[in-house]
Amino acid sequence: SAGCTDSTLVITSQNTGTVAVGVYHTYFGDGTYDLFSANPVHTYNAPGTFYGWMVAQGVNGCPSDTSNFDVFIYQTPSANMPPIDTAACASVLTLFSVDSVLPHSTYEWSILYNNQITRVTSYDGTLPFFATEPGVHLVFLTAYNDNHNSCVAYSDTFRVTIYPVPVALFSVDAPLIYNSEFSFPLHNMSSPAGNT
């Protein structure tokens, strides 16, 4: 059987004999045991091939034959990134990068803006994202192990917010006179109507 680090595997037993089973003993191949469960569950924390076995002991005290099993565990890639929510008043370049890159992995980045999703694929765990349009851009990562694509990790959702640039209009209602003070009404055209 095959699985992923940080996923739980269930090992299922089946009694085909005429004597009822009293106790099961399972060795998982990674130095750990389960001494009671007929269908033990186990999480492997490291990738690799593990050779385990299970023995059932009948209620009459007689042990069964040993049933061997092999488990192939693949590393789940990381989708962890430091929190990098960003806000700026102009176009901004944000570099998204996972905390550790796993060889033979695919990193699929999803960028949501204006109810449209753009997907970008990388193999080095990075995404240089250049946001130019005002509004909120949401960035999300899904990371897959190419050798076993059920080994998948998901990132948190990050925000890149571009604030609209204010537009200022100046006007002078009086003739220009040297050594006089002038006041200019400033109307912010990028805010809701009526705000000055």
Explained architecture:
It contains no helices and 17 strands. The chain is mainly beta and 196 residues long. Strands 8, 10, 11, 13, 14 and 15 form a 6-stranded mixed sheet that branches. The protein has a 5-stranded mixed sheet with strand order 1-7-6-3-4, with no helix packed on it. The chain has a two-stranded antiparallel sheet with strand order 2-5. It is rod-shaped and about 110 Å long. The termini are far apart. The relative contact order is 0.16. The model is unreliable at 191-196 (pLDDT under 50).
State the gist of this model.
The chain is mainly β and 196 residues long. Helices cover 0% and strands 46% of the residues.
Please name the defining characteristics of this protein.
mainly beta, six-stranded mixed sheet, five-stranded mixed sheet, 17 strands, 46% strand, disordered C terminus
Topology order in helix (H) and strand (E) letters: EEEEEEEEEEEEEEEEE
Average pLDDT reading = 85
User: How many β-strands, per DSSP?
Assistant: 17
Distance between the termini: 68 Å
Work out the radius of gyration: 31 Å
Largest sheet composition: 6 strands, mixed
Q: Count the helices. How many? A: 0
Spans of at least 5 consecutive residues whose pLDDT stays below 50 are 191-196
Strand content: over 45%
Which structural class should the secondary elements be placed in?
Answer: mainly beta
Dominant shape? rod-shaped
Share of helical residues: under 10%
Task: Compile the SSE list and pairings.
Elements: E1 2-4, E2 8-10, E3 21-27, E4 33-34, E5 41-43, E6 48-58, E7 67-74, E8 86-88, E9 92-97, E10 105-113, E11 116-122, E12 126-131, E13 135-145, E14 152-154, E15 158-162, E16 168-169, E17 187-188
Parallel strand pairs: 1-7, 8-15
Antiparallel strand pairs: 2-5, 3-4, 3-6, 6-7, 9-12, 10-11, 10-13, 13-14, 13-15, 16-17
